[in-house]
Each structure stands twice: as C-alpha cells, then as structure tokens.
Write a structure and sequence with these properties.
Blueprint: H1 13-30, E1 41-50, E2 57-66, E3 78-82, E4 85-89, E5 107-108
Antiparallel strand pairs: 1-2, 3-4, 3-5
Length: 113
C-alpha cells in the first residue's frame, strides 16, 4: 500500500492539474504580447473534509493560475467629416499617398495630427 502524497493525490490528478497550469504559465511567459515583468502564479489548493467518524475524508483539489494579461495594441486615429458626418481613419488623410493619386474627400478637423 502506498501512503498518500502530493505525487499520487487523486490518483495523480493533483500533479496533472499542476502540470497543465505550469504549461499555461510558460506559454504566457513566452508570449511577446505580455509584460515580462508581471509575476505569474500557480495556486494548488487541497481541501480535506473529514466525515463525522474522522476515519474518512473527502478531498477536493483545485488549481488556479494567474497569468499576465496581453498588452493592449495602441494606434492613432484621425478624425474628420465626410459629407457632414464625423468619421475616423487610421491613415492621415493630409499625408500624400505614394501609390495612389486619389484626392481625399475628408474634411480634416482643426487640431488634427
């Protein structure tokens, strides 16, 4: 008979849950879209609820990982009017287009970039 340990807890479920969370943490660390400075965390929680006779207990195994969020993507938008309605574009309409000679019909608002 093998005595209970973390390695065999839940017939290996605790170790498997931890390993799955570890893989997620390592993937998150390897993702260039996350902040490398953020601390990642894995919590392994084991709840033991004994019965009234104290000769038997129900065990719950929970694993929670805390990952670094993906960094936001930022961009500039240029705001203007087209036929009297406000519109936005990521391309500066005042900048000359190198490959297309079409004139912009957007009215650029004062103070724009």
């Amino acid at each position: 008979m093998e005595y209970l340990s973390l390695k065999n807890l839940g017939f290996g479920a605790a170790e498997e849950l931890f390993n799955d969370s570890l893989v997620k943490v390592l993937e998150n660390i390897s993702d260039p879209n996350t902040d490398y400075k953020k601390v990642r965390k894995i919590n392994l929680e084991v709840l033991i609820k004994p019965n009234e006779s104290r000769g038997k207990a129900e065990v719950g195994i929970f694993v929670k990982s805390t990952l670094a969020p993906v960094k936001p993507y930022t961009t500039d938008i240029y705001i203007g009017k087209d036929r009297g309605k406000y519109v936005a574009t990521e391309q500066n309409v005042e900048q000359m287009d190198l490959f297309n000679n079409n004139e912009s019909k957007l009215e650029v608002l004062a103070g724009g970039k």
